[in-house]
Design goal:
By secondary structure, the chain is α/β, with parallel strands linked by helices. Helix content is about 45%, strand content about 15%. It has a single domain, classed as NAD(P)-binding Rossmann-like Domain (Rossmann fold, 3-Layer(aba) Sandwich), CATH 3.40.50.720. The longest helix has 29 residues.
């Protein structure tokens, strides 16, 4: 029979990996789990950009590690999981948060660009999810959380490549949830159906200041609370898909 997830000791609630620990949402998720008492492992392609995040968490008394890893590289993903499992601790939660939101007209989308976006947003999710499942299945516990977007459920003009990848990631999450749920592994998909407060949005959203002033932009720190909540949910009421949007968002 599947076991309840262990809550760990009071000093260390478990180990969490965030694949795609970018400057906004990814880093906020890392900080949120660290503040809740988890040992956090942050990974992104340019791992040197994680030094400030890791140092801040450690300065606050948390346990944090930073890694360079391209989520599209199978060998590096496999090695990252092996290292964390053997040198840091068994993974209780894995978050796939790699971004690939690149607007591109279909006539300007060549096969190389399409493939790269798919590799980042979908194939990378497969590699990350598979490796997480390999370790968690033996222990019969854990959470695997995927970050989705508006493009996960509807394709917009100029986002054909991104939408196809995000649709694929959502389908992957659905299949994994049905397969791994009976093994006591919680798989969930978070649809962020709005603009999040990132540097790109701040520079390109035509009404950024107005929307932000009225809580119309998703705050990464507030968003991150949902990931922690999903991981700590009781298994008798697991959420598979969580739609997140500000109160002013039309849908």
């Amino acid at each position: 029979m599947a076991r309840e997830r262990s809550t760990g000791s009071p000093d260390n609630k478990g180990t969490v990996l965030v694949m795609g620990a970018g400057d906004a949402i990814g880093s906020a998720i890392v900080r949120k789990f660290a503040s809740a008492g988890y040992t956090v492992c942050a990974a992104r392609r340019n791992g040197d950009q994680l030094s400030d995040l890791v140092e801040d968490i450690r300065a606050d008394g948390g346990q944090a590690h930073g890694f360079s890893c391209d989520a599209r590289d199978e060998e590096r993903v496999v090695e990252l999981f092996r290292h964390i499992e053997t040198e840091i601790g068994p993974l209780d939660c894995v978050v796939f948060n790699v971004g690939a939101n690149v607007p591109m007209a279909i006539l300007d989308t060549d096969s190389r660009k399409f493939r790269k976006i798919w590799e980042m947003a979908c194939f990378g999710g497969f590699l990350t999810g598979r490796e997480a499942a390999r370790y968690m299945a033996d222990r019969e516990q854990g959470s695997i959380l995927f970050t989705g977007a508006t493009a996960s459920v509807r394709g917009g003009a100029g986002f054909a490549a991104f939408a196809s990848a995000k649709h694929g990631l959502r389908a992957l999450a659905q299949s994994m949830a049905r397969e791994l749920g009976p093994k006591n592994i919680h798989v969930a998909h978070v649809v962020i159906d709005a603009a999040a407060d990132t540097a790109w949005i701040a520079e390109n959203h035509p009404k950024y200041a107005e929307f932000k002033a009225q809580d119309g932009i998703v705050e990464p720190d507030d968003l991150a609370e949902n990931y922690l909540m999903l991981h700590e949910q009781k298994r008798n009421c697991w959420t598979f898909e969580l739609d997140v949007r500000p109160w002013v968002e039309r849908w």
